[in-house]
Amino acid sequence: MSLQKCTVLYDGRALVGPENVPLIDFLETCNITLPHVCYHPALDPLQTCDVCWVEQEGKLVRGCTLRSHDGLVINSLDTQARAAREEGMDRLLAKHELYCTVCEHNTGDCTLHNTMVDMHIPIQRYPYTRKPYVKDHSNAFYTYDPDQCILCGRCVDACQNVEVNETLSIDYTMEHPRVLWDGGNQIAGSSCVSCGHCVTVCPCNALLEKSMQPDAGPFTSMRQSLKRPLIDVIKVLEKSMQPDAGPFTSMRQSLKRPLIDVIKVLENSTGAEIISGISVMDTALRQQEIKRTKTVCTYCGVGCSFEMWTRDRQLLKVQPVVDAPVNGISTCVKGKFAWDFINSPQRLTTPLIRENDRFRPASWEEALTLVASRLLQTRDQYGPDSIGFIGSSKGSNEEAYLTQKIARAIIGTNSVDNSSRYCQNPATEGLFRTVGYGGDAGTIDDLQQAELMIIVGSNTAENHPVIASRLKAAKKHHGQKWLVVDPRRHEMAERADLHLRIHPGSDLVWASAMARYMFDHGYEDAGFLAERVNQVDAYRQSLTPFTLDYAAQITGIQEETLREAAELIGKAGSVCIMWAMGITQHSHGADTSTALSNLLLVTGNYGRPGTGGYPMRGHNNVQGASDFGCLKNFYPGYESVSDPQIREKWANAWGVPAERLSLKVGQDNFMMVELARKEVIRAMYVIGEETAFSDADAENVHQGFTNLDFLVVQDLFLSRTAQFADVVLPGCPSVEKEGSFVNTERRIQRFYPVMEPLGDSRPDWWILTQLAACMGHDWGYQHPQEIMAEVAGIAEIFAGVSYSRLEGWKSQIWPINADGSSTPLLYTERFKSPDGRATLYPLSWQPPAEEADAEYDLLLNNGRMLEHFQSTNQSGQGGRTTSLSPDWFVEISPQLASARSLQEGDWVKLISRRGEVEVPVVVTDRVQGKVLFISIHQGKDGINKLTGEHHDPSVNTPAYKELAVRLETLDRPPLPDPLPKHNFRHGKRTPIDKVPVEEKWRRADYREPPATEPHPEKF
């Protein structure tokens, strides 16, 4: 909000408040409410509801269109303005079947109800007429009820201009306008990605979460046959209602419909204010039962935060708020809806110990005593490095810290890691080599500000959808240019100004050719290079082989297209490069990440707003797990384990002898499993990671776990990994504990306990604290804030972190100074190096370790899907997200389908050098030629039945994307619709610039308030 102040004369009162903000928001800061329904602070002024009329300079104007400034004079008490506002509300009520006390949405969050009450509407003047449409239940997560829809267009603007999925529209020229999905009447099968944004902004209950239906309130679940008469009585009585938010909302529809009719009759007799008074009391009763808790999403690394509305253990809804620092009111399908795992009957609720090859329940004391004794026994018999620890990228920062503290301070090994080994360590290595910090150069705001976004190997719309929405908005509204480099034609590629459909694994050549082109054509930032970068001449000489002609040969992209890409980069005033697993999961991912950072340095695109390198983090706390020490070579804050002075500092802080802390770099995930197979690693402790499913070459992984003397798994479910365990400890999801996460932009945020732990499960920080005590180290932590305070007192980059500074919606971005100030944009004055300068890092081209050949003639690309997450242990619970694409399938190109005589749904066997899987085919132009695509989520052993041991030698990240296969057709009946017809990928978007309110105004039967309206129910 603006820091400048101005004075507005409102109804004769001089009000002082922020300058150049919407009038409605200005008045809110002065504790004045101007009635409004369609206005939302996160949306454009829609001008559809006609409820916010005021008088300005002798004319009636809609208040939502005005912004505060000195000298603004407004009169809301004007007779015509007041009449216009009441006429606007009357028209809304003509479109909305108002029955609040049996409405699921009557929880205090209904803008229509609250505004009607505030305006003291005496009676519903225009009779309500039902619309010729039925309620749409076709989506797995929310419903659309045309009889409740007031046609305000909030949902349309949210979809078109904030989420920018461009699915929803309203055609005000229709005989009976309604919200449309891809121009049609049904949600299922449209391009709707179920982000829930439309539901969040709906000002009534036209769009409503299914989790709010039918028992959000005492009466909401009654049968419709009873409810309908009661509603109609309430219709006559009151004006507001639906299932699952209040006392009456959960009654069956057979009861509810009569109840609604009765209420409407009473309303006509008594006036609406008596009935609305009842609904206000109902709201108050419901609010006493509903708990609202801020939390941070437990899925991808974007770091969305929101409120969870719960009644006991029932999650009513996820409600984003404008104050959320990363996402505002945006969500994706998983963040908004994929929380069924919280109450899953599959949750682990008690410790388990394996006896006679079966698990039996155990007490915490027995389980932790056994774990402590076996780990200490293994350490004493085989040495500290015989034990490996894998920390959780879904657990909290505090839990990551305790994991590495046990490994280092008690066991004496640096063999501790997290799942960043499987995805982002190559990117981190590339940043260490060139600019110094292992994190994004700036924030999501910088991504939006960039003149040119280069998106490489990142299906952002599906893997980081809220960031994708921010970028789509920047492109749609501000003309941001996109260069997308990817073998697959996903949504980001479809929207790109230029899409380079590159041969998989050849990105280093493309990026290096671009850097040479910058030097050769005068696009390098000579001043920046001279002042702030080392090894410029050596790097430039290393680029000699990387001509456009050479790049065209290796990448498969025409030279002219490469030149077009180079010109885009060279002429752009600010450039950000975003990359993800399409780059990092190759045998030379660290080198390619380095090449991308080199390109940014050559063009001077670091240290300014709208510039920098941005490797996207895949799990909610994969950044934090690394930041807080779950890495083989770093203490928390990226302080080297090999530096004797650093060791001395941490030993003193922890109160242990310096000799206890090893100076030797430990083993990582990849090598731990390999050494377990060779019986060098004898015991492992795995927290919240599905290593048996996620690590490459599943057969070797399973053999390694089988060979271990002792394995502890701490998780929410009896995962594939837990099935190999000797002891299983039931941890808690984030909603059952307190802590903090770090998102992809280095932002630290707190989350709070939404509900109590299920059964005898316990927060991971509690488990680790108790385990340490059983091993003779009673650290005595009573709350995660004590753990964070300890870290802040030791690690330099966290010096100013504290729970008080993270209270509520506040956040901090590391490095954090002792005074608590953040560093949103890195490298503005210095790079992270001894001399403060960046380094251009010479590279040479090395081909992928595995390529297609005569026997294995196809390349099997693989990655994530929007609706699933990793092994689906969380997202697959309850079946709702899974229903969008329940079957595993492989995407093949139309060219390959034609050549192999394959049709949609035909079964094939994919055979690699390691194993084979059987899947149906989906024929799509998302892939091209002999490059296939398969998701990483499904299948008993999944894609890693096929992947191999080849890996990046710099960081040991498996080369998941370098996978050659051959395809055999199976004689089996086809699977109908392997990608179901209701899946959003079949939809056809209908983009528009804004809600077309002018269409309404141009209708022959539209009358501008305060004039009465002949057909208020229609528009």
TrEMBL record:
All residue ranges annotated as the 4Fe-4S Mo/W bis-MGD-type domain in the record: 290-346
One GO term (biological process): formate metabolic process
Example of a GO cellular component annotation carried by this entry: membrane
Bias (Basic and acidic residues) ranges: 990-1019
4Fe-4S His(Cys)3-ligated-type domain sequence ranges: 80-120
Matches recorded under Pfam families: Fer2_4, Fer4_7, Molybdop_Fe4S4, Molybdopterin, Molydop_binding, NADH-G_4Fe-4S_3
Keywords: 2Fe-2S, 4Fe-4S, Electron transport, Iron, Iron-sulfur, Metal-binding, Molybdenum, Nitrate assimilation, Oxidoreductase, Periplasm, Repeat, Signal, Transport
Residue ranges annotated for the 4Fe-4S ferredoxin-type domain, each copy included: 140-167, 183-212
Record field: catalytic activity: 2 Fe(II)-[cytochrome] + nitrate + 2 H(+) = 2 Fe(III)-[cytochrome] + nitrite + H2O
GO molecular function terms attached to this record: 2 iron, 2 sulfur cluster binding; 4 iron, 4 sulfur cluster binding; formate dehydrogenase (NAD+) activity; metal ion binding; molybdopterin cofactor binding; NADH dehydrogenase activity; nitrate reductase (cytochrome) activity
Cofactor section: [2Fe-2S] cluster; [4Fe-4S] cluster; Mo-bis(molybdopterin guanine dinucleotide)
Protein name in the entry: nitrate reductase (cytochrome)
Organism: Kosakonia sacchari
Enzyme Commission designation: 1.9.6.1
Ranges that cross the membrane: none
